[in-house]
């Protein structure tokens, strides 16, 4: 049967005459994700060899290494954000701050992510915190939805426009996830909650 989750978004794999699955973009993505989650360095040459295809075919399927890494990271980040949102209690500023804090904690305690960040800090920051990658704008869009939900529920009345506020909240979250790479300080998810509450107009000790 065909899969239908966020990772398996294409049709079923074609089958070889002997019944084995034919390598394709989906299997390439799955293999890349497995490498990343194992804490290993993703190399396109090694991935192509493992799939039994040439590098040109792999690049045609998934784009370059940066594009593939961004998709793999988002495939982990999105369900992490959604789990945090589903588990967060309450409404308004405290709910949003809790979600972002839980996401930061999950990221900071992920061995696979920390290995990538420490092994390739410049690439990680470029992919995750700038327009060169696709991850940040997706997280910003997710936070925009959170803000819109709280505003619709009359649980939040922000002083800033939603797009600007969402970007600032994501920037705060990034600061306390990547702080060891940026400044050498220890990542601190609790600071994400505190700073987010302040930006949302709440006192952290409330």
Would you kindly provide a written description of the structure presented here, covering whatever features stand out?
The protein has 206 residues and is mostly helical. Helices cover 66% and strands 0% of the residues. It has helices at 25-37, 44-51, 55-62, 65-87, 92-108, 111-119, 121-129, 135-152, 162-177, 179-182, 189-199. It has eleven helices and no strands. It is elongated and about 55 Å long.
Listing every helix as H and every strand as E from the N terminus to the C terminus, the arrangement reads: HHHHHHHHHHH
Number of beta strands: 0
Ends distance: 50 Å
Residue runs with pLDDT of under 50 for 5 or more positions: 1-19
Global morphology: elongated
Strand composition percent? under 5%
Secondary-structure content class: mainly alpha
The gyration radius over C-alpha positions equals: 19 Å
| Overall helicity | 55-70%
Biggest sheet: strands, sense, closure?
Answer: none
**Oligomer class:** single chain
SS summary, helix count: 11
Average of pLDDT: 88
């Amino acid at each position: 049967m065909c899969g239908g989750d966020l990772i398996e978004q294409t049709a079923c794999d074609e089958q070889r005459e002997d019944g084995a699955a034919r390598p394709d973009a989906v299997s390439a993505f799955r293999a890349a994700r497995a490498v990343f989650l194992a804490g290993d360095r993703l190399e396109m040459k090694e991935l192509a060899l493992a799939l039994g295809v040439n590098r040109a075919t792999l690049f045609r399927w998934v784009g370059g290494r940066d594009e593939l890494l961004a998709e793999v990271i988002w495939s982990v980040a999105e369900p992490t954000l959604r789990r945090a949102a589903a588990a967060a209690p309450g409404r308004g500023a405290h709910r949003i701050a809790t979600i972002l804090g839980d996401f930061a904690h999950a990221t900071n305690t992920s061995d696979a992510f920390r290995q990538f960040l420490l092994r390739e800090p410049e690439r990680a920051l470029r992919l995750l915190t700038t327009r060169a990658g696709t991850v940040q704008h997706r997280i910003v869009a997710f936070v925009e939805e959170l803000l819109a939900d709280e505003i619709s529920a009359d649980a939040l009345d922000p002083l800033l426009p939603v797009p600007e506020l969402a970007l600032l909240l994501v920037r705060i979250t990034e600061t306390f996830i990547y702080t060891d790479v940026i400044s050498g300080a220890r990542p601190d998810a609790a600071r994400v909650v505190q700073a987010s509450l302040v930006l949302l107009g709440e006192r952290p000790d409330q």
